[in-house]
Description:
Layout: E1 14-25, E2 34-45, E3 49-53, H1 60-67, E4 75-80, E5 83-84, H2 89-95, E6 96-99, H3 111-121, H4 126-139, H5 155-167, E7 173-177, H6 185-202, E8 205-210, H7 213-219, E9 222-227, E10 230-235, H8 237-242, E11 247-253, H9 259-267, E12 272-278, E13 281-286, H10 289-302, E14 307-313, H11 317-325, H12 329-343
Parallel strand pairs: 3-8, 3-9, 6-7, 7-8
Antiparallel strand pairs: 1-2, 1-4, 4-5, 9-10, 11-13, 11-14, 12-13
This protein binds adenosine-5'-triphosphate.
Amino acid sequence: MAPPTHARTGGGDLAIEVTDLVKTYPAARKKPPVRALDGLTFDVPAGVVLGLLGPNGAGKSTAVKILTTLSRADSGTARVAGLDVVKDQQAVRLAIGYVPQQSSSDPMATGTENLVLSGRIYGLSRSDSVRRAAELLERFGLAEAADRQVRTYSGGMQRKLDVALGLVHRPRVLFLDEPTTGLDPEARADLWTEVERLSAAEGLTVLLTTHYLEEADRLAAQLAIVDHGKVVASGSPEELKAELHGDSVQVELADAASTTRVHSLISGLRGIGEVVVDGNVVRARVDHGATAVPAVLGVLEEQEIPVAAVTVARPTLDDVYLRYTGRTFRAAEQASDAEKERAA
Length: 344
Ligand SMILES: Nc1ncnc2c1ncn2[C@@H]1O[C@H](COP(=O)(O)OP(=O)(O)OP(=O)(O)O)[C@@H](O)[C@H]1O
């Protein structure tokens, strides 16, 4: 497998530069230490939305905590808005906005009160804070709810307020940690539109972490795919998918018990690349979808294996992830969840 060649974009005005970050959490309760970052390297050109995509436990939040000065790496360097996150900690804090996974708003205060307080904390005068609060509430479609307590907001409204809170002091770089986790599809799409608008209209650099492939595909102009604390591939979603030639054939089986047999039958056909099993679905990378499907269906019919559905698709980010890590995104998430349960 060829190593990723474009983890660095090189040249231009870089808003974030991350070089070889390593972070190990110490051993706890007879558990071994956890190497959360293992030489993480990537950069983000100014004005770009970069998605740090990886399954749970890949190290995304740890990276964001280091870049937002909330945690320190064991080694490696990171610069944000041209400033070193260790040596220029205070200046970094003023140059960035950070929207953590957990909401930081006060549920008993109104939207306006939350924003005004945040403005005051950042050193804005009272009148500037009030003006900025009104401007942000308007921009995020929250003006009508401005004087309501935040606890009465829907999940989507609360998340928009969280993003607004991160923007009060007009940062140059905005960090969004898993911004749409827990939101329904409509609220998620709504927030995507807001983030797109922000980056387009204001030239804001946005680093967002996500474990939603669809979110990464839709929102990020550049992606860094993270696995076990390292960037395994990077580029625009289109570039990453275009690197995979051919198509992806998915065979959904009526009976999950036959997946192993189907895996070996399909693997034996000509023109077939990697074959993986994902639940009752067997997925294969093929040179040509149009010629592979009749061959796949032929061999399954011959063996009298019932098929629920067959689909042919252009490569997805899941295929990209599979190519660089050897497992599907869903399998990686399940493994990470199982690991967490064991550790608990
Ligand atoms: N404070 C901590 N102490 C010990 N281990 C930690 C700590 N924080 C994170 N980890 C471990 O470090 C690894 C990376 O975690 P991190 O939260 O950075 O991943 P992530 O990609 O953001 O995933 P998630 O979306 O689940 O937060 C995981 O194995 C996690 O269990």
